[in-house]
User: Which sequence fits this backbone?
């Protein structure tokens, strides 16, 4: 029974227990995704809401036991994930309002779901963010940090992280970007290495966006950084080098939730059955602030690039030109206020079969953007914290399960197939589990 108790309390990992406090600092704290995630987590704590969509909370980890038989174990039982009660929230935004007001503004959750956690939400407020309208043209920043150089602003973010740790008596923190999508940027000279990036921050190099300053600051504070938007952010040689040098977890980019999640399930089906494809037209309407930001061509280009990359990789177009050599792939997002967060997506897929005969698939997904994204945020936070405690620094490719444009290193192609990604995630979790020798202790307990 001692084994069981130690698992529930969180197995020691790098001197930390899952039961010790974890700080979750969110960039874009007052946004729709952040507030939906936080209100949901508070509800899990207070009124035992079911964490639907979270693999960390409801998933099971498959593995082969020592007697050679296949078995599974609930993820939370298998691994010393941070306790829900131990999580402290904080973060940055460019609007100064309580999370209660921000949750109501987002208009994702009904009042009946907000009321039980209203008091807790009302106590949360962001600190001022680092923002520049040049990088998100459809937003006005009202609540901002001031500084002459990007380097100074980055140092102020570091100071925020340190202050949060002291005031909340927290020694581990994860930072996650749930803020607006920045304009499209490509890697430039300032992103080439650590020295060039530091110089770029001091010279206010325009290729260094605010999201990169948050990431740089987090890494220097030995804090994992996750990127939920399609911005370049941590996907540059300089930031990858910094994270590797400091052995800090980074992962990105762009939460995989609605239309792209479906695409990465349907496209592998076509490939598995060697069915051809001539076109895939995806469009959707969205009426929340994210939709308004994406209405700007600069931010839309960042999102479009992220969404378009998926098919080429999955179908491996060069290997089967007769099936996939001439695909028309189009992605459109329309800002349509009446729908708010309740995005509607349409996919028209033109495929062909035996003797080249054409067929069509139509998908109409009436989804809820933030409802799909919130459990993704939750899992990413828990797994990034776990990985950091297990000593896994640098780019975490296995977290690609949660991203539209998964980062890949060493010249590897990123994996997009949802189920292949899930297998990679399981494999890494098993590796961490084995590192902790939890499998044997669990088996002893299960058999006892
Ligand atoms: N919901 C989904 O399914 C989904 C999927 C993939 C990616 N995303 C991305 O997640 C992000 C958040 O989406 P959302 O619907 O919550 O958007 P939102 O507009 O509701 O929230 C974004 C928040 O970020 C704040 N912000 C903007 N720039 C900032 C900065 N530099 N520093 C601090 N705060 C800043 C805004 O004030 C706002 O409160 C977007 O980039 C979106 O593209 C969402």
Assistant:
């Amino acid at each position: 029974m001692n084994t069981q108790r130690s698992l529930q309390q969180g197995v020691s990992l790098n001197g930390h227990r899952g039961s010790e406090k974890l700080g979750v600092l969110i960039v874009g704290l007052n946004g729709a995704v952040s507030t939906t995630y936080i209100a949901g987590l508070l509800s899990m704590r207070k009124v035992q809401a079911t964490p639907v969509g979270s693999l960390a909370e409801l998933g099971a980890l498959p593995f082969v036991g020592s007697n050679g038989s296949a078995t599974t174990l609930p993820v939370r039982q298998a691994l010393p994930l941070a306790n829900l009660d131990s999580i402290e929230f904080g973060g940055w935004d460019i609007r100064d309002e309580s999370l209660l007001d921000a949750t109501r503004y987002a208009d994702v959750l009904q009042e009946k779901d907000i009321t039980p956690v209203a008091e807790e939400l009302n106590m949360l407020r962001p600190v001022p963010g680092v923002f520049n309208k040049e990088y998100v043209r459809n937003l006005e920043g009202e609540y901002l940090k001031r500084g002459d150089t990007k380097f100074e602003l980055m140092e102020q973010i570091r100071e925020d992280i340190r202050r949060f740790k002291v005031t909340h008596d927290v020694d581990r923190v994860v930072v996650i970007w749930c803020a607006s999508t920045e304009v499209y940027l490509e890697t430039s000279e300032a992103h080439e290495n650590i020295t060039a990036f530091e110089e770029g921050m001091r010279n206010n190099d325009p290729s260094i966006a605010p999201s990169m300053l948050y990431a740089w600051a987090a890494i220097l504070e030995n804090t994992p950084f996750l990127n939920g938007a399609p911005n370049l952010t941590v996907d540059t040689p300089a930031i990858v080098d910094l994270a590797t040098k400091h052995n800090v977890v980074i992962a990105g980019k762009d939460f995989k939730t609605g239309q792209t999640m479906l695409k990465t399930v349907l496209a592998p089906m076509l490939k598995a059955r060697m069915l051809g494809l001539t076109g895939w037209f995806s469009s959707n309407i969205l009426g929340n602030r994210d939709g308004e930001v994406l209405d700007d061509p600069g931010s839309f280009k960042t999102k479009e690039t992220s969404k378009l990359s998926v098919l080429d990789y999955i179908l491996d177009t060069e290997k089967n030109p007769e099936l996939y050599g001439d695909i028309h792939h189009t992605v459109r997002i329309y800002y349509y206020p009446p729908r708010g967060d309740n995005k509607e997506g349409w996919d028209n897929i033109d495929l062909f079969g035996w003797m080249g005969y054409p067929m069509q698939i139509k998908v109409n997904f009436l989804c809820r953007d933030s409802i799909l994204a919130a459990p993704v945020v939750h899992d990413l936070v828990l797994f990034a914290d776990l990985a950091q405690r297990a000593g896994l620094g640098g780019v975490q490719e296995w977290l690609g399960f949660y991203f539209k444009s998964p980062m890949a290193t060493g010249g590897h192609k990123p994996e997009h197939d949802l189920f292949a990604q899930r297998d990679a995630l399981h494999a890494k979790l098993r590796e961490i589990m084995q590192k902790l020798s939890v499998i044997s202790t669990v088996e002893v307990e299960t058999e006892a």
User: Anything to note?
Assistant: The chain has two domains: 2-255+371-444, 259-366. The chain is about 40% helix and 15% strand. Confidence is low (pLDDT under 50) at residues 1-12, 439-448. The radius of gyration is 22 Å.
